[in-house]
Design a protein that fits this description.
Layout (H helix, E strand, L loop, with lengths): L1 H20 L8 E6 L12 H18 L3 E6 L1 H4 L12 E5 L10 H4 L6 E7 L1 H14 L3 E10 L3 H13 L3 E3 L1 H9 L7 H10 L1 H10 L1
Parallel strand pairs: 1-2, 1-4, 2-3, 4-5, 5-6
Helix pairs in contact: 2-7, 2-8, 2-9, 5-6, 7-8
Amino acid sequence: MTARRTADTARCDRNALRIVEIRMLDAARSTLLLVDFQARLMPAISGAAAAIANAQRLAAAAHLLGVPILATEQNPAGLGGTVDELAGRADTTVAKTSFDASAGTGLTGLLSPDRASIVVAGWEAHVCVLQTALGLAAKGFAPVIVQDAVASRRPESKAGALQRLAHHRIEIVTTEMVVFEWLRDCTHPAFREALALVKDGPREAIGFLRRG
């Protein structure tokens, strides 16, 4: 009987710990990371336009809600700069040659431990996004992958990347999840503008970013 109570208690403790570990995204504890949205990659990327549109929404919401934005560019001498739709939106852009943006690029030095939830969008899902997420997790950050704002040349590569990331307990979310979790409440002063980003899409995002 005692053994059974002990097992039950341990199970309850594990469940309680799991509840504690589950967190919604908090704008005050988040950073948005835009990985390698580069112009010369775009023609080969499946779903590139949709990923860019959602990245625009995320960037506009981040500006609206005070979330820092970082970006990376893979070998910009060969692959060019960030696409026009997102160029200049990041507070800092880091050039890199490693596929894992957290490896020796100086990126982690720009990340604050107080903003350890790293919301990740970018290309390619199965290469730089995947390796960056795993690298950040290994360094104690909490990467969160925005599935409708990442893409690869082939859809099956993106699907495989998301499956592997989930296997490693890295959270997979959507653009709207991010925006509404950052807001938390419809009484938020920025609710109407943020809602417009979700409903009206890139055009509203572009307008907000230009105003900002």
